[in-house]
Design brief:
Layout: H1 3-13, E1 18-21, E2 30-36, H2 40-52, E3 57-60, E4 74-80, E5 87-91, E6 96-100, H3 105-113, E7 117-118, H4 131-136, H5 144-147, H6 150-153, E8 154-160, E9 166-170, H7 183-186, E10 195-202, E11 204-205, E12 209-217, H8 222-233, E13 241-245, H9 247-254, E14 259-267, H10 269-282, E15 288-292, H11 294-304, E16 320-327, H12 333-342, E17 349-355, E18 360-367, H13 369-385, E19 389-394, H14 397-400, H15 413-423
Parallel strand pairs: 2-4, 3-4
Antiparallel strand pairs: 1-2, 5-6, 6-10, 7-11, 8-9, 8-10, 12-14, 12-15, 13-14, 13-17, 16-18, 16-19, 17-18
Length: about 450
């Protein structure tokens, strides 16, 4: 069926719903016709239509993760949740909130700030990201050390299955421990099993005070960094992040080209100052220490969260942008970052950071296409050698076809494939968007 015929059919079925014909997108994961439902019932009707007509659906929120996975350039339909937004319920005293999946992450945080509360997640590009996209990708940032991942914040989900049925997982209370935690099946599944309709999250109080300690190591001695990290992690201090920045990234963010530890503290003011003083007493020789107070710390993070390539805002130049997420044993992150810097010999601009408390690293690359692809392959090899993983979280569609962006099939792949086949036998939702082409 031609696109014009599909549009005519959709206009008859959904006369009041906003629709747009779509051009091919350089990041793929698109659709011939985009639909913008505003209610759950409209989403269900679209799903039922797609199932009956045997059409495929790509699901999108703010578009920031459009370059993450996916071997299908254009699906039949692009289901956008951008207009499906809003707060369903906010139990202020219980510190729990339920929101529609298309709700903008930053706007939601601004709303919660009025109640001195927040969602304890720090994804990239919060001004574009939706809560549904953050949860579907299990996204998190450096403060994962203190607050955990998206999986740790979700206590309940409402989803639409490919057969049009609506299911609930978890609940609306924090203490919900009966049976298997079904939330974990869907968080991070990249929309391949169901369309997130509503998300229930536990909240945290806004900290009374925060600061960011920047500890620069001008000599570049990674042994000193490791020794400091071990001693600090063995202490009683409670940082929300212990993030190591490569010299190139540190120069962009702080003006100093040196390996730099970003140590974040969030607590009452006296506790934050106590921990700053502790770091000062531990400070290794030949290092420089800078303490950013609340406003400056917040400005730092605002800039930091806009470092990653963004599917919603494409670069103006013709160089290829890519991002790789690497998971290793926590202190192996130091070696990963050091070896990432060496890949600049391939004439690729590389900026990276990694958590010395949780071992998750992010490497951002920019340069000529073949050089970027070559660097990605070396990063994947490096991760395997350390018994870790490397997942490409941003890459133009044409190059995703030449490289396994998920880094190979895991030993338990048959379980993932079985779940997908059981829930979505027609492979209707986000086909080939997850591990192994699921």
């Amino acid at each position: 069926m031609h696109t014009a015929q599909v549009v005519e059919e959709l206009n008859a079925l959904f006369p009041h719903m906003h629709k747009e014909e779509q051009e091919a997108h350089p990041l793929g994961n698109g659709g011939d016709v985009a639909l913008f439902p505003q209610t759950e019932e409209e989403i269900r009707n679209i799903v039922n239509y797609a199932r009956e007509k045997k059409k495929t659906l790509a699901i999108i929120g703010g578009g920031t993760k459009r370059g993450f996975g996916g071997l299908v350039e254009r699906n039949d339909l692009l289901l956008s949740l951008a207009n499906y937004r809003g707060i369903v319920e906010h139990a202020v005293a219980d510190m729990v909130i339920t929101v529609k999946a298309g709700t903008n992450f930053q706007q939601l945080q601004h709303y919660l700030a009025e109640y001195r509360q927040k969602i304890a997640l720090d994804p990239a590009w919060p001004q574009f990201a939706t809560i549904g996209g953050v949860i579907a990708a299990n996204d998190s940032g450096p403060k994962r050390l203190g607050y955990g991942s998206a999986r740790d914040s979700v206590i309940g989900l409402r989803l639409i299955y490919p057969d049009g049925t609506v299911i609930r997982t978890g609940g609306k209370v924090v203490k919900n421990v009966a049976g298997y935690d079904m939330n974990k099946l869907f968080v991070g599944s990249m929309g391949t099993l169901g369309i997130l309709s509503e998300v229930t999250l536990k909240l945290r109080p806004l900290p009374k005070y925060e600061s960011l300690v920047l500890l620069a190591f001008p000599t570049g001695d990674t042994d000193t960094i490791r020794s400091f990290a071990v001693q600090f992690l063995d202490s009683m201090m409670e940082p929300v992040c212990l993030e190591l920045l490569t010299p190139s990234l540190a120069e962009q963010l702080t003006g100093t080209r040196a390996y730099t530890l970003a140590i974040g503290f969030e607590d009452v003011e006296s506790a934050v100052h106590y921990q700053e003083a502790f770091v000062q007493r531990m400070q290794p020789p030949h290092t420089t220490m800078t303490i950013l107070p609340p406003q400056e710390a917040q400005t730092f993070w605002q800039t930091f969260y806009q470092m990653a390539p963004n599917g919603a805002v494409l670069p103006a130049d013709e160089e290829v942008e890519a991002a790789v997420k690497i998971g290793v044993v926590n202190l192996d992150a130091i070696s990963v970052l050091r070896e990432s810097e060496l890949l600049q010999a391939l004439n690729v601009d590389i900026r990276a950071h990694g958590g010395l408390g949780h071992g998750l690293c992010r490497v951002y690359l920019k340069g000529a296409a073949q050089s970027v692809v070559s660097a990605i392959k070396q990063l994947q090899t490096m991760a395997k050698q350390r018994k870790g993983y490397a997942v490409v979280t941003h890459l133009p569609f044409s190059f995703r076809q030449t490289i396994d962006v998920w880094g190979g099939k895991p030993s338990y792949f048959f379980l993932l494939e079985g779940i997908k086949t059981k829930i979505d036998p027609q492979r209707m939702f986000n086909d080939q968007r997850f591990v192994g082409g699921i």
